[in-house]
Amino acid sequence: MKTKELSNLNEDELITKEKQLKKELFEMESHRQMGRVEKPASFRNLRRDIARILTLLNERRNPKERKVHGK
User: pLDDT for 10-61, tens place per residue?
Assistant: First the structure.
């Protein structure tokens, strides 16, 4: 999922999406334990999507603490 798509969601929708992705990751982990993983790269993608959501939530909650990269 792209950051642009996520930035269009409100805070409640982001939280719901995060819970959904974490549940999916948990289910995939249990399949990994049993040795039935079809796409191993999807673990990384799910973790990155969760991180994107958490980053957006933190930026919205703490707008003053955003760091500006400069010279």
Answer: 999 999 999 999 999 999 998 888 887 788 889 999 999 999 999 999 998 8
Please state, in angstroms and rounded to a whole number, the distance separating the CA atoms of residues 20 and 42: 15
Q: What is the CATH number of the domain that holds 47?
A: 1.10.287
Cα 62–Cα 68–Cα 70 angle in degrees, nearest 5: 170
Distances (CA, A) of 42 to 12, 20, 37, 59, 64: 25, 15, 9, 26, 34
- The total domain count for the chain is 1
Domain residues for the domain of 17 are: 3-61
Query: Per the confidence metrics, is the pTM higher than 0.90?
Result: no
